[in-house]
Amino acid sequence: MHGNVDRANSAPASIETATLRIASRDEITRLPRWSRAFVNERKDHRFYELLEDTLAEGFDYGYFIAANGDDVHAIQPYFVVDQDLLAGTGDRAKPLIAAVRRLWPRFMRARTLMLGCSAGEGHLDGDTESHPAIADLLRRSLVRLARELDCVMIVFKEFPAKYRATLQCLRAAGFARIPSMPMTKLTIDFKDFEDYLGQKLSPGTRATLRRKLRVAARAKPAITMSVTSDASALVDELHPLYLDVFARSSLQFEKLTKEFLGEIGKRMPDKVRFFIWRQDARAVAFALCMIHDDGIYHEYVGFDYAVSFKLNLYYRVFRDIIEWAIANGYRHFHSGSLNYDPKWHLRQLLDPVDLYVRHTSGVVNAGLMHLLPIMEPTRADPILPNFANYRELWD
Predict the structure, then answer these.
(1) Residue 113 contacts by C-beta under 8 Å, 6 or more apart in sequence?
(2) Mean pLDDT of all residues in the chain?
(3) Mean pLDDT on 2-15
(4) Is 8 helix (H, G, I), strand (E, B) or coil?
(5) Class of 12-182+352-393 per CATH?
(6) What CATH number labels 184-350?
(7) 12-182+352-393 and 184-350 share one CATH topology?
(8) pLDDT attached to residue 8
(9) In terms of pTM, does the model score above 0.85?
(10) What values do phi and psi take at 244, rounded to 5?
(11) Distant-in-sequence, close-in-space partners of 152: CB < 8 Å, separation ≥ 6
């Protein structure tokens, strides 16, 4: 019996003749290729294992292997979810949707195959040169595999705009590209936070921000910050703060567990930084960040709302992360989706991520293409058009 062979330098021509098949977690963890999957991203193979181990509720995880026999070119994670296709519609439509679902509970809900990451943006495995061939293989194979998994919808979940040229081939296979709620980004090549204020913000915004920060600075007892890569001993304090933020979110997808917060720093200490703010020893805020190359990524946040608004903790958290990042040599700050109003005032830019969507039925898909522009979530947000690069969501 021949073992699996993983050749790192497979020729692109062989990728073009590869096949795509479903694989289990047990199988992919035995492949040398898996230890190098997504090695150029902050969320490498360890993150996908973490999700499957700690965020199981509502998700069925799996993996596609792109290979010629034993020659493995890429491993592409996926998950299956019962998706509400109308989750991103505006408030005006929600009463009508609720009325329809009283008569038709499954209206616009579908068992969906999602390519990518259940907690964040998606990426293609393999080196950049192989991505066009991997994308074409996915284009040719996904309808068949979705039917094997008893899914009627296929979604490439939140793939960054850098993949638009590579994934253009999906359009010919009936996929539509629509914007998802974008991340945001900020170049922080400044001497310090004051330099950022002076160069990026208007005098009025600078004055407002400084006034908000003074409130936090004068708090009694004083607010202190600490940074750690492992918060496993603190999850009982931090998780309730996260749940309070999650409950207030207008759009909800993944819901972090205590196990996730406790394990991520243990498994990925080189990538993870927890920032924790305390007042009189009590945690009042935390931020889960990831670091990669010269970027820091603000992934999740938690607040004690008993004091958060009064002390303007959102802005204290932002300032302290930016100060730490600049002091430690990071030059790019990235933040997750939603809560766009303060991000716009702080002169962050949008960082677009896309959904590629199709139905497995050609007939249904033809009708869906007309509905997707109405259903896509970004049109319901009133703040997004204010951003300087708003048009990049579609361009």
Answers:
(1) 78, 80, 142, 145, 146, 149, 151, 153, 154, 155
(2) 90
(3) 49
(4) coil
(5) alpha beta
(6) 3.40.630.30
(7) yes
(8) 43
(9) yes
(10) -65, -40
(11) 110, 111, 112, 146, 359, 360, 361, 364
